[in-house]
Predict the 3D structure of the following.
Amino acid sequence: MHAKLIDWQLLMQLTWPPTIGRAAMWDGFARRYDGYARLSEPYVAPQLAALALQPGETLLDVGAGPGRLAIPAALQGAKVTALDVSASMLGELQRNAQAAGAGNIDTVELAWEDVRPGDNLQPHDVVLLSRSPAMRDLAKVDALARRAAYVMVYSGRSLKSFHDELVAGIEPAPPVQERPGLMSYVLVFNQLIDMGIEAHVDYLPDGFDKWYPDEDAAVADFAWLDLPAGSEARFRANLAPWLQPEAGGLRLKIETRTAVVWWRK
Ligand SMILES: C[S@@+](CC[C@H](N)C(=O)[O-])C[C@H]1O[C@@H](n2cnc3c(N)ncnc32)[C@H](O)[C@@H]1O
């Protein structure tokens, strides 16, 4: 037995933003996350296809949020368990599922830290972690997956970096030490290697994409940010660089990428 040059698990713990697993932080961001998720709808299909779900398979979505992937998976015929620590996120998910007519989703309000595989949560065919703090504990993910497990993480700019630029000068900048830093698929991949799992890595397009007839329509589409009165001029200035003229209107287009780290059982 030789000493490890890099302890990937320890590196994950050391670079983990302190607030990221807390329900209160996500409760407060649920409406906004749902708004951003709507703007990234064009990128959902390739992410869902990556799961290669077979009809009737069970899917555990850990940190399911407003159901960005859980709902289309259910509409495809998967039996979905959507687990999340945030009651507000699950509230958004239930509203979205109802609007989409997706009936086959069980919601579980539980912190990943409190999940005990085989006790309070049973194995599923597929386990999905998308932008999910559950990637801190990959042994548990592996224990709950029967056919395959998928971890999806931004490999380019993130939703949060876009958000921080949109609210710059309107809301306080996030404290530097809370920025994600090294939290990435590189840590996930290497922790899996240490666990004896040789994972695959794919890269998928991700981003935000929507066309508006004019700037007023674009600004109105961000009403869910609930920005304070008097901040509109600054918000317009923050949004303007992301809007490009197209077909007589304006297109919001931000391209980034998502890494998919996945393994078969
Ligand atoms: C960035 S969102 C991702 C939502 C969704 N998976 C997606 O790809 O759009 C992260 C989600 O993980 C949830 N979460 C954070 N910490 C958690 C924990 N300790 N246990 C369970 N869920 C957690 C949050 O409430 C939030 O809904």
Remarks:
- The mean pLDDT is 93.
- The two ends are 26 Å apart (CA to CA).
